[in-house]
Amino acid sequence: MKVSVSHKGGMKFEATTAKSSFIIDCPVISPVEYFLAGIITCSATDLILIPKNQGKTVTDLVVDGDVVRADDHPRKFVTLHLTYDFNSDADDVTAARWVMASVETYCSTINTIRDTTEISYSITHNGKLIRENEKMISGGGSKIDMGEIEACPS
Hints:
This protein is α+β, with helices and mostly antiparallel strands. It has a domain at about 30-135: GMP Synthetase, Chain A, domain 3. The protein is about 30% helix and about 35% strand. The protein is built from three helices and seven strands. It has a four-stranded mixed β-sheet, with helices on one face. A three-stranded antiparallel β-sheet has the order 1-2-3, with no helix packed on it. Strand 6 (about 120-125) and strand 7 form a beta hairpin. Helix 1 (about 30-55) crosses helix 2. The longest helix is centred in the N-terminal third of the chain and has 23 residues, at about 30-55. The chain is globular. It starts with a strand and ends in a 19-residue tail after the last strand.
């Protein structure tokens, strides 16, 4: 993947990818807000595609992200809480598994920050709160020594 950013005057920049381009207007939206929007959109796309691959449908999807940043520069993300609210034709357990699959495995942007950021999530499915302030199973901003794990021979 390659992205090129060129200055367009003032605090406006144009980002060009292999597929498209868009304007980044820093006085209006900061690069950190674009970054957070990218993280959220990555997971949101998973919440559409994973169910679709299982013959299910998600509607009315809204994913909110709330970040706490460090006070000192470079002001990294300290915590990220994602709130998923959606309807689907699946049961609550399946809906929760979709979110877990996104945050634990498939969303590359979340997994890019997982070693430095404590990440949690809540899920409202079909109007009912089914998970609240759940932490990621792995990662989550700290190293955990799991000891030796026996693996299959390769």
